[in-house]
Amino acid sequence: MKTFVDEIVDILKKKDLTIATCESITGGMISSNIVNISGSSKVLLGGFVTYSNLSKTKLVNVKEEILNKYGTVSKEVALEMAKGVILKLKSDIAISITGNAGPNVAEDKPIGLAYSTIIVIDKAYTYELQSRESERNAIRIDLSYQVLTRLLDLLNKLR
Predict the structure, then answer these.
(1) DSSP conformation letters of 92-127
(2) Distance (Å, whole) CA 20 – CA 88
(3) Coarse DSSP helix, strand, coil percentages of the chain, rounded to the nearest 5 percent
(4) Measured at the alpha carbon of residue 36, what is the angle toward residues 55 and 12, in degrees to the nearest 5?
(5) Per-residue pLDDT tens over the stretch 49-89
(6) What's the rounded Cα separation, in Å, for the pair 76 and 54?
């Protein structure tokens, strides 16, 4: 039975589009969901897990000033992460996500809050996401699916 992630990979292949990821809170779950699909090597260029602020600055060029001004869990950082992965891997589409999986409140941001940016052929879409899950790993899984669902919606609009 085909899943919605199968559909994402099918659309990317049909449109001859590539994708790359930059994940913090999800730790690679989004790219892992894509890799689970046969044929994903034709569309997934790669991804970064930028869990620390250091990796965000060194790997995808998020400016320290943006991290200091807005905090790690912010739409501004999500946008910079997506722009950075596109610059590094030259993909048509980029997904980024940053957030707080708990168990503690961080930066005065609630547990389960995340920001994601999806860039589709030079147009950026940034989302504030909130997981209703309470357990750390369940939050990460939920947010991964929320982002992939939004990606599918955007890809369906390209048809």
Answers:
(1) SEEEEEEE--SSS-BTTB-TTEEEEEEEETTEEEEE
(2) 9
(3) 45, 25, 30
(4) 85
(5) 999 999 999 999 999 999 999 999 999 999 999 999 999 99
(6) 16
Report the relative pairing of strands 123-130 and 113-120 from DSSP bridges.
antiparallel
Cα end-to-end distance, the chain, whole Å? 23
Residue 141 phi/psi, 5° resolution?
-65, -45
Non-local (6+) Cβ contacts of 12 within 8 A are 18, 19, 42, 43, 93, 155
- For residues 136 and 101, is the Cβ–Cβ distance under 8 A? yes
Radius of gyration of the chain (CA): 15
Instruction: Return the SS3 of 21.
Output: strand
Tell me the pLDDT tens digit for each residue of 80-122. 999 999 999 999 999 999 999 988 888 889 999 999 999 999 8
